[in-house]
Design brief:
heterotrimer; A alpha+beta (about 375); B alpha+beta (about 160); C mainly alpha (about 350); A: about 375 residues; alpha+beta; Cytochrome-c3 Hydrogenase, chain B; three-stranded antiparallel beta sheet; 16 helices; 8 strands; about 45% helix; B: about 160 residues; Alpha-Beta Plaits; 2 domains; two-stranded antiparallel sheet; about 20% strand
């Protein structure tokens, strides 16, 4: 009934120390610093880390399997719960893949609304990341300040989409409902409020000498290693890899927007931190460019009531706040997909943690995990 | 000599960045009455206004004659991703003698609902909508299985 | 204005006139003991409440505001909770040391209260080596911490206690050297002499640059000595270990917790005495009218006001800065604070000899 697989019966790679005198300790799964249920088995020699083994699967909910029994309109709500901090962007990726299969053209108004929602979500995700990172390193005040700004974005989302975290606003063909009449005014208020606050963020945390000492030269990963581990998103851009999907494979209206791809070459935690701080400013400028230029028209393309993708394989990729999310649908021509696979950014980013953490101290592990910006439901799906 | 210069620069830079951070939190501490963002929740229930699109739970709109607009077409039941809605239909004899399908009970499992809005989108007659309630906790799980059509209600004339 | 000095003198005279001298002395001992314990309890309540409120204000939220008007009785509720909690002793601990450790830390805090001047004439023991006594006795609290870590029979507690011990012992050097700067300016170790020498101005103003440098170093060093953030790696909540008091629960934990806050009060009281003039009102040069008004405020209010201002500064540090790693902490002390404070001491000696201070 229960067959021990090779991995479990092979005890040598589990919790036995390699060398006499090494200590094996567990971090998590319940731990305030791991941003979710992540179980790390750390082999220590004194204070120095020799190996980090992440054990995943504590929040695996078989989302991919669930999607096999849901139709193409129904499976999108489940993906909001994968990387819940960039829920809109997840939904966007799924909607893009389905549209690719249906060969449906999204109207320009819906495209602009989608990009606006994406960038607001990216801002909200980076704000929460900033608060949580500062809290891990020890400063408890920035967490509350970050949530104050994030609440403004949540309120904007609540007014238009109806929900604050799992929005389910994008549908194949466009968006579910048109934006609320107050949307533009509230986004303008938010932009003017946040422009001042982001300078406050720099004053409080970025320029602080203690914080800089905690994160500089900690968790170095070189450009070649980042590429070979498959890292993407701000974690890879901190090591010099040019991997912004919005620039390399532009989708929606990104090709027409003016924004910079932020690359830092230092490769340590501070570089990844600075990439996200500067990305927040870029997202703010994208929102500013778009908010007054929403074209009139339809907010949803006309699609059939029951969607059927033709037989074949379809892939689409979007840039979430964590990296590249890939949605791969294999369809056999039915109303439900045959197989959906999500390429999650966190999974590849986490695999580089072992490489980064070798030789570092325990106190640095928390700083490293903070800058990788892991959301465990994204990794476990 | 360069060592000494770096040392002094380190010290002065450290002091300056620390004072900048302290100035910010000091400002918040002194102006806390203006800057605080806490809403004292159970006391402010009367002033709480949720946006009209907020997805609290699904309800069926009834007008003043206790009539609703649901024809029992089960479009919402088909659209729901996880089986939250169950429609039980019965056959009614209409005034001109024809047998028509009509709604008997609209069973809604609040404990399963993910508030994804797909049922509202699918309804052809705007019979259901989202309410702005959010305090759904109960002590008895059976209270979470709701029947949305009020007793004694029937479909409004002219709805198809 | 009525003054505490007159009250204490009249009580003293009445006791010695009514009773036998030995009995009167014993009664005075008891009265002083009750006062100190009462002060402890009051301080515990007030300081924990202040910490929670100040931290809430800095984090744009309200603090405790339900229990009592404005949340005043929150600490009473917390104390009641800690008292009724199960005080568990783990299985293989060293029982004697485990139970003794919190008491050592508390006793040290109480003994250090002896030379402090709370108001004009209110001092428990005006020993002629006042400030040396304070520095020496406060070092004994390290023993309590190491005892707690060792007796807990838990390798993480031991690790935390060792780190904490190393931190406290290192930072005592800088704190001691800053204190010495003021002693050099004053010329005496006696607390009442130090306060009286500030009757024409506080040392932080009179001793211009070296006193300001000594003050800054003192504040940083005592934040590290009392294991407060940003130097609280030994007891941090989001790091790996919970420090030397992991295994303590119930009333013993409450004693550690209380002792930490009272230690903060004591080091701020020392700072206020040395640098900000103790119970001396603020006098500015020849503005006699201003000085008269300042004299009307009772001296104990001056003392407690200055101390609570310094406590606010230390709490301000906690909620602004991230935590330092243990090696950065020791780095800061041995490579930055200690050389600067030694140079400062040299500077202050030169200034005192040449009378270049106000």
């Amino acid at each position: 009934m229960y067959r021990e697989t090779q991995i479990i019966s092979d005890n040598s790679i589990l919790a036995s120390p390699d060398v006499e005198g090494d200590l094996v300790i567990n971090v998590g799964p319940q731990h305030p610093a791991t941003h979710g249920v992540l179980h790390l088995v750390i082999t220590l020699n004194g204070e120095t880390i020799k190996r980090v083994d992440p054990h995943l699967g504590y929040i695996h909910r078989s989302i991919e399997k669930m999607c096999e029994s849901l139709s193409y309109r129904q499976f999108i709500y489940v993906t909001s719960r994968m990387d819940y901090l960039s829920a809109h962007i997840n939904n966007h990726g799924c909607a893009l893949c389905v549209e690719k299969g249906l060969q449906v053209e999204v109207p320009p108004r819906a495209q602009v609304i989608r990009v606006l929602m994406d960038e607001l979500t990216r801002l909200a995700s980076h704000q929460l990341w900033w608060g949580a990172m500062a809290m891990d390193v020890g400063a408890l005040t920035p967490f509350f300040l970050a949530f104050r700004e994030r609440e403004m974005i949540n309120d904007i989302m609540e007014e238009t989409c109806g929900a604050r975290l799992t929005m389910n606003y994008m549908v194949p063909g466009g968006v579910m409902v048109d934006i609320h009449p107050n949307f533009q005014r509230r986004v303008h208020e938010f932009i003017s409020h946040f422009r001042n606050k982001i300078d406050e963020y720099d004053e409080l945390v970025t320029g602080n000498v203690i914080f800089q000492n905690r994160t500089k030269d900690v968790g170095y990963i070189s450009r070649e290693d980042a590429i070979s581990y498959g890292m993407s998103g701000p974690s890879a851009r901190g090591s010099g890899v040019q991997c912004d999907i919005r620039k390399l494979y532009p989708y929606e209206v990104y090709a027409k927007l003016q924004f910079d791809e932020i690359i830092e070459t230092a490769g340590d935690s501070f570089a990844r931190y600075m990439v996200r701080m500067k990305e927040m400013r870029q997202s703010l400028s994208i929102v500013e460019q778009l908010i007054d230029n929403i074209p009139p028209g339809d907010f949803q393309a006309k699609t059939k009531a029951v969607l059927k993708l033709p037989k074949g394989e379809f892939y689409s990729r979007v840039e979430t706040a964590r990296g590249e999310l890939g949605v791969y649908i294999t369809s056999e021509g039915a109303t439900t997909p045959y197989r959906i696979k999500f390429r999650s950014p966190g999974f590849s980013n986490l695999s580089a943690l072992d490489h980064m953490a070798r030789g570092a101290k325990i106190g640095d592990l928390v700083a490293m995990m903070g800058t990788l910006d892991l959301v465990i439901p994204d990794i476990d799906r | 000599m360069a060592f000494l210069k770096n040392y002094i620069n380190d010290v002065i830079g450290a002091l300056r960045s620390s004072l900048k951070g302290m100035r910010l939190t000091g400002y918040y501490a002194l102006h806390h009455k203006r800057e605080k963002i806490t809403q004292q929740y159970p006391d402010n229930r009367n002033e709480l206004v949720l946006p009209e699109r907020f997805r609290g739970e699904v309800i069926m709109t009834h007008d003043e004659h206790n009539e609703h607009a649901c024809t029992g077409c089960t479009a919402c039941e088909l659209a729901c991703p996880n089986g939250t809605i169950k429609i039980i239909t019965k056959f009614e004899v209409s005034p001109d003698g024809k047998k028509k399908k009509a709604l008997d009970t609209f069973v809604y499992h609040l404990e399963l609902c993910t508030m994804c809005n797909l049922c509202i989108e699918a309804c052809p007659t705007n019979a259901i909508k989202m309410a702005q309630t959010f305090e759904h906790s109960v002590f008895d799980r059976n209270k979470l299985t709701k029947v949305l059509n009020k007793p004694g209600s029937k479909i409004r004339a002219g709805v198809e | 204005m009525w003054s505490l000095e007159n009250i204490s003198h009249s009580i003293d005279n009445w006791l010695y006139n009514t009773f036998d001298p030995t009995v009167a002395m014993l009664v005075e001992f008891l009265v002083v003991a009750f006062c100190v314990i009462g002060l402890f309890a009051m301080l515990g309540l007030v300081l924990i409440m202040m910490e929670r409120k100040v931290s809430a204000w800095m984090q744009v939220r309200l603090g405790p505001n339900r229990v009592g008007p404005g949340g005043m009785f929150q600490t009473v509720a917390d104390t009641l909770k800690l008292i009724v909690k199960e005080g568990m002793t783990p299985l293989n601990v060293d029982k004697f040391l485990f139970n003794l450790a919190p008491f050592i830390v508390m006793i040290v805090s109480m003994v250090v209260m002896a030379p402090l001047m709370f108001a004009k004439g209110i001092q428990i023991w005006d020993i002629n080596i006042g400030i040396l006594f304070i520095t020496a006795v406060s070092s004994v609290s390290v023993i309590g911490i190491l005892m707690a870590g060792w007796a807990s029979n838990n390798k993480y507690s031991l690790l935390g206690a060792m780190r904490s011990g190393a931190q406290i012992v290192s930072y005592e050097l800088s704190a001691g050297l800053s204190v010495l700067s003021i002693v050099v300016l004053t010329g005496s170790l006696r607390i009442s002499d130090i306060v009286n020498s500030q009757s024409n101005g506080w040392w932080i103003f009179k001793g211009h640059i070296p006193a300001v440098v000594a003050f800054v170093i003192f504040i940083i060093a005592v934040t590290a000595e009392t294991n407060r953030a940003p130097f609280d790696l030994a007891e941090a909540e989001s790091e790996l270990t919970a420090g030397f008091h992991t295994e303590y629960s119930g009333m013993k934990f409450a004693l550690f917790f209380l002792a930490e806050y009272v230690n903060v009060f004591i080091v701020c009281a020392i700072g206020a005495t040395l640098f900000l003039g103790g119970w001396m009102p603020l006098h500015i040069g020849n503005w006699t009218a201003f000085n008269h008004i300042m004299d009307y405020v009772p001296t104990f209010l001056w003392f407690f006001g200055k101390t609570f201002f310094l406590i606010f500064v230390i709490m301000w540090f906690r909620w602004t800065f991230p935590r330092l790693r243990i090696d950065q902490l020791l780095n800061l002390e041995w490579k930055y604070l200690l050389p600067i404070s030694m140079l400062n001491l040299l500077f202050v000696t030169v200034i005192t000899i040449l009378k270049w201070h106000f």
